[in-house]
Amino acid sequence: MSEAGFAAINQAIKAHLLADGALMGGLKGVFDEPDHRARLPYAIIGPHSISDWSAQNLDGTNWRITIRVFSRHPANREVLLLADQIRARLLDGGLAIEGWHLAHLQFEGLQSLRDGDGVSQAQLRFKALIHRL
């Protein structure tokens, strides 16, 4: 998988999330990497891990995608609500990755955490099988 492939999937996820007005009413931003100047709540796409999913005449990859949501809300309610909206948005069937075909996208799980500085975090994990067009 080339750097262009990483960029394509990040760009597709980011664009798909940003296009959801209801979701973006609650999030201050969606980023590819931490932006410590950004106001909470926000989401970060990544990290990812990939493995080969190729077959004869098929250049495919198996992705494990993590999306992290951060909030300063004193309870986990806000971060879990935003995580559920992100999950629903990504599974709505509209995610398109330029130059790739998304053969399968599956939600694998969610973990909620609380940092020492009072920031709540939800980590969503997805599995995606994609191949080049």
CATH class: Alpha Beta
Our count of helices gives 3
Uncertain runs with pLDDT below 50, 5 residues or more?
none
β content, as a range? 35-45%
Order of helices and strands: HHEEEHEE
Largest pleated sheet: 5 strands, mixed
Describe the structure in brief.
With 133 residues, this protein is α+β, with helices and mostly antiparallel strands.
Layout: helices, strands, pairs:
Elements: H1 3-18, H2 21-26, E1 30-31, E2 42-52, E3 60-71, H3 77-90, E4 100-114, E5 120-132
Pfam family, one: Tail_completion_gp17
InterPro entries: Gp17-like, Viral_Tail_Comp_sf
Protein name: DUF3168 domain-containing protein
What do you see in this structure?
There is one protein chain. This protein is an alpha+beta fold. It has a single domain, classed as STM4215-like, CATH 3.30.2000.30. 27% of the residues lie in helices and 40% in strands. The protein contains three helices and five strands; from the N terminus they run ααβββαββ. The protein has helices spanning 3-18, 21-26, 77-90, and strands spanning 30-31, 42-52, 60-71, 100-114, 120-132. It has a five-stranded mixed sheet. Strand 4 (100-114) and strand 5 form a beta hairpin. The longest helix has 16 residues, at 3-18. The relative contact order is 0.21. Pfam families: Tail_completion_gp17. InterPro entries: Gp17-like, Viral_Tail_Comp_sf.
